[in-house]
Design brief:
The chain is α/β, with parallel strands linked by helices. It has one domain: Glycerol-3-phosphate (1)-acyltransferase (3-Layer(aba) Sandwich), CATH 3.40.1130. Helices cover 51% and strands 14% of the residues. The chain is built from eight helices and seven strands, in the order ααββαβαβαβαβαβα. β3, α4 and β4 form a beta-alpha-beta unit.
């Protein structure tokens, strides 16, 4: 019955997949013309991220329940990581600059989109690159553009978080920038994209359903010059928020 339903709704997933390609191309091309004529600005970055994120969430049937993020642009957002849709969710709700692997520069749309979204590329194996990343994060936040880092480093099914990487917290602790923990919980645990599952296979299975429900919670801003303590406090906040959501208290 489930297989028959997926086959029946496959055209919906295909439409959504094609829309993502079209809206991504539209945002990059429009943003590029904007950049050439008026230069980079927070307005361009905000428009690009919100238009891209909100359009994709709407067409893909992503229904979000959330609280309010603190009113401040001077922060680093640190969410747990479940799916590729986390990126669209953050873009729509908190149009921050993403920190991404340097290898992603090779992707045509990402290479073009990086300049209009203030994406920060980093090669984790090079110390010099990490120092440059810290400086770019500071510059972005000082210009009123928050930054998002996924401290788990990869997607995880849950129900809570996996151990966090140290690098994100060293940057936040050394720069003195507040961290806002962010909990992302999908009602259907199969929406998590993990292990060796292919993107296309997962997308067509999960995006063949009409609606995907997600709950988002923003925590209290955290600062600590000790990166280990900052890491511990951030993970505890996210895990607590996830537990509250799962139990129905969130």
């Amino acid at each position: 019955m489930k297989i028959a339903r997926i086959i029946l709704l496959a055209p919906l997933a295909l439409f959504r997949f094609l829309f993502i390609l079209v809206i991504s191309t539209f945002v990059v091309v429009t943003g590029w013309f904007w950049l050439q004529h008026f230069g980079f600005s927070r307005k361009l970055q905000n428009w690009s991220m919100r238009t891209w994120g909100k359009s994709i969430l709407f067409v893909c049937g992503i229904k979000i329940r959330r609280n309010q993020i603190p009113e401040n642009s001077h922060f680093i957002v640190m969410p747990n990581h479940r799916s590729y849709f986390d990126i669209f969710i953050v873009a729509a709700l908190t149009p921050a600059a993403f920190v991404a692997k340097a290898e992603l520069k090779k992707w045509p749309l990402l290479k073009g989109g990086a300049k209009i979204t203030n994406t920060i590329f980093v090669s984790r194996s090079e110390l010099q690159s990490l120092i440059a990343t810290m400086n770019k994060i500071k510059a972005s936040v000082n210009n009123g553009i928050p930054v998002v880092l996924f401290p788990e480093g990869t997607s995880f099914k849950g129900p809570l978080t996996k151990p966090f990487k140290n690098g994100s917290f060293k940057i936040a602790a050394d720069s003195g920038i507040p961290v806002i923990p962010m909990a992302i919980h999908f009602e259907d645990e199969n929406d998590a994209w993990v292990d060796d599952d292919t993107f296309v296979g997962h997308f067509f299975r999960q995006m063949s359903k009409p609606v995907t429900r997600v709950t988002i919670r923003y925590g209290k801003p955290l600062t600590n010059s000790d990166y280990k303590m900052l890491q511990k406090e951030t993970r505890e906040q996210i895990d607590t928020m996830l537990q509250e959501i799962i139990s129905g208290a969130g």
